Automatic annotation (TrEMBL):
An individual GO BP term: carbohydrate metabolic process
Homology family: Belongs to the phosphohexose mutase family.
Domain Alpha-D-phosphohexomutase C-terminal residues, every copy: 370-443
Key words, A-Z: Isomerase, Magnesium, Metal-binding, Phosphoprotein
Organism: Candidatus Egerieousia excrementavium
One annotated GO molecular function: intramolecular phosphotransferase activity
Cofactor(s) essential for the protein: Mg(2+)
Keyword Kinase set for record: no
Residue intervals of the Alpha-D-phosphohexomutase alpha/beta/alpha domain: 3-125, 163-247, 252-364
Keyword Magnesium: yes
Name the record gives this protein: Phosphomannomutase/phosphoglucomutase
Alphabetical list of InterPro entries matching this protein: A-D-PHexomutase_a/b/a-I, A-D-PHexomutase_a/b/a-I/II/III, A-D-PHexomutase_a/b/a-II, A-D-PHexomutase_a/b/a-III, A-D-PHexomutase_C, A-D-PHexomutase_C_sf, A-D-PHexomutase_CS, Alpha-D-phosphohexomutase_SF
Amino acid sequence: MGAFHAYDIRGIYNVDFDRETAYKVGFFLPHLLETDKVLVGRDARLSSPQIRDALVEGITDAGASVTDIGLATTPMVYYATASYGFKASVQITASHNPKEYNGMKVSTSNALPVGKENGLGLIEEWIKSGKECRKEKQKGNVEFLDIRAGYIAFQMKYLKDCSSLKIGMDLSNGMAALVIKDIMKQAGGEISYIFDTIDGTFPGHDPNPLVAANIVKLQELVIQQKCDIGVIYDGDADRVMFTDETGRFISPDLMIALMGHYWLEEKGLRGKVLQDIRSSKAVGEYLEPMGAKMETWKVGRAFAARKLREIEGIYGGELAGHYYFRDFFYSDSGIMASLIILGIVSRLKADGIKLSQAIAKIEKYRNSGEINFRIEQKEQAMEAVCNYFKNEEQPTAFMDFDGYRVEFRQWWFNIRPSNTEPYLRFIAEATTTELLEQKVEKAREIISEFR
């Protein structure tokens, strides 16, 4: 049962989970979420049709009906869940993972995420314990629903005139290709696409924009075509990342700050903005003068979407390239985020400002990026790192709700166990490169004792 994680069900298909798992998830889901209707969508991975068939069989055997929207981005499933009033939905996807992976993202009313803490853990327990799947006498029916036009119309509300821009877009052979061209043809400008066909084998590169090797072709395109910005989506289009006009990758947390020019400046909103525990201090320092009140919370949609709703935040984001919006049911959408950013970049260009110059005004610190350590003794290593630095220097702030974030006068670090992979993750930020390197090296030294 290694496929059940904090945010979703995910793993190598027929290794970590199989058709039987998908059937049982489908069978137990209507009972878990107390509904007789379940919305189902899927990405284009080769195993997705098999998982879909097993999932649907389980749902209908439980007596519930299925509304199948077919191939979809994950945010399309969120849109349909909230817009059509479903109490349960499943997107079959492994998001950014390689082609042999697959999984299921579960949502409930208003597109709120269902994670291990609020439901998936119970389904895992029922499957592990051998809970019987007693078929209902009246099998549920299956109907099909085409939401593509409605979803595109919704996204178009955030499209601005991009006629002055040259844009490079890498669709990662993923689900963004289902809708983005129809949206962007209304934007104007010169757009160059790569890996723009939907292909569940991901022939261009693995659909994970956080891996440096996967953005090389986009960086080359941006430089060769002299683009103003590069845009890259992950496999299911719930995440998006960017390069500037020089091809330099922009840390996704910094784009939370840049979005302030739309929500706080252009729209004139004031209120709470959510960031995750790994975010640069520069984000809050940039947004607070615009009228934002920063809130910091755990990593992952299962936590972030619910938190943004709880605090009635305007928008939020994560280091992993998820961006959440009150206007999108407090959910994340890579395409919506990219449209907002493109509008900002168009405005900046009209004022003679390049994207790299705008980011330079935000980025004040030296950042290590997230460093992964594959170790068994995660908790012991976390405690050792935390205790060492706290004893060495008096912290100015301390957070302990997702690993630890410990802040000092000139630097901070976050250390946390991954919720989806067998890693301990460490990230640090400092006022100088020299101080950053010194702290990272010491953390490496401490963690190495637990390998």
